[in-house]
Amino acid sequence: MTENAERSDRPEGWQPLRGVKVLDFSLLLPGPFATVALGDLGADVIKVEPPGGDAAREFRFPLFKMANRNKRSIILDLKRPEAMRVVERLTRGVDVAIEGFRPGVTERIGIDFASLSKINPRLIYCSLSGYGQNGPERLVPGHDLNYLSAAGAMVLCGHWLEPPRRSGLPVADLAAGAYAVIAILSAMHERERTGKGVYLDLSLAEAAMSFTAARHGFELDHVSREHLWPTNDLFDVADGAIALGIVEEKFWTNFVAAAHDLAPDLADDIYATETQRRQHGDALSRRMREVLRARTMDDWMARFNQHDVPAQRVLTPTQTAESPQVKAREMVMERDGERHIPFPVWADGRRGAALHRVAPPAGADASAILADFDFTGEEIAELQNAGVLGAQTSNEARRIS
Question: Is the pTM of this model over 0.85?
Answer without folding.
Answer: yes
